[in-house]
Inverse folding.
């Protein structure tokens, strides 16, 4: 095949960056640091590019996007296993000047 356009390297960097949060998700059992939309879109995009790679018989499309399919499945499975919970908000209490007595 001739030269083809591939989205593999940029997508793999993005997915790998998302996987940096994997230990935190597992440790806290909270997937709130992962975006469900981005995880699903990553999986769908990787599947589509892998399928296209099979159609045009281009190994340079198949391999990086098949890896993206696996990583997308890992991210989506983390979302299914560990629910998204809101992290407790830190509240900052600043004493007012009016309540101070001199």
């Amino acid at each position: 095949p001739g030269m083809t356009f591939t989205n593999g390297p940029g997508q793999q960097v993005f997915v790998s960056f998302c996987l940096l949060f994997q230990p935190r998700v597992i440790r806290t059992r909270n997937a709130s640091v992962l975006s469900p939309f981005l995880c699903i879109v990553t999986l769908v995009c990787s599947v589509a590019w892998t399928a296209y790679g099979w159609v045009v018989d281009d190994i340079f499309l198949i391999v990086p996007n098949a890896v993206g399919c696996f990583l997308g499945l890992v991210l989506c499975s983390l979302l299914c296993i560990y629910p998204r919970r809101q992290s407790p908000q830190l509240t900052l209490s600043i004493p007012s000047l009016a309540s101070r007595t001199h």
